[in-house]
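Quarterly update from the structural biology core.
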Amino acid sequence: MNHIHYVGSDAEHDRHFIFDIPQGHHCWLLVITKTPAQFWVNGELRQYPSHSAVLYRAHQKIYYKACTDKYVNDWIRFESDEPYVSNTSLPFGIPFSLDDPDYCHKLFELLVIEHNFDRDCKKSSIDCLLRTLFNKLLESYCHEGFTTQYYDILRLRAAIQNNPGDHWTVPKMAERLRISPGYLQTLYKKTFGISCMEDVISCRIRLAKEYLFQGSQTINEVARRCGYQNVEHFCRQFKQVTGYSPRKFQVHASPSEQVQGHPVNLPESSDWL
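Predicted structure, tokenized:
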């Protein structure tokens, strides 16, 4: 069972902001910073970067303050006896960096909505959102070494995945991050295990497969919507990645070729292409 006392996102304060509760709350408090801040940790005041998360258990000393001209955070004060909270392996009162702060922020925005509206599935929706949030916190806690550059390249990859049909080039991506093309390629491959242009191609082909599956567009239209100016290039790259020509994929994977709700399996052999 979860009960939210208060949840807020993008709470903004000036540089004089101090949150000081020596005896702590009677319930859980989770804070995620969007700006640098100072926290009282192990008997001393320490500065932590933006995108830090800190979980306080009941009756634990709480002290944190702004250390720049503006302090912004997401926060939730709540009660819970759910094992994913009560038995969490997250540290208490010790900030750690998030690997996907934008994702966590969206969860906070959804928690604010669910908390403030009495909908039929409010309790289960809040539980799902909190479970997901704690999963993301655990994933982050198991990783180390996040930097401002990491967050920048994470946003770049999200932009590629959301808009694979854009005119992506290495110089354009490097300019977006204000780094050299060579360094971008090294950093991207090290971070995600795939080159930036391979990622673009993978996202384009994945989107193309969806359009082809729907079967309502021509090959030329699919190629254009997926960022290809040349349909021959699209067809060649699609077959190189999937093993199938776009036409054969469209014929054998479109909804019209499904039988009793089950998609027809594409042949394993490439002989029929």
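The first strand starts at residue 2 and ends at 14.
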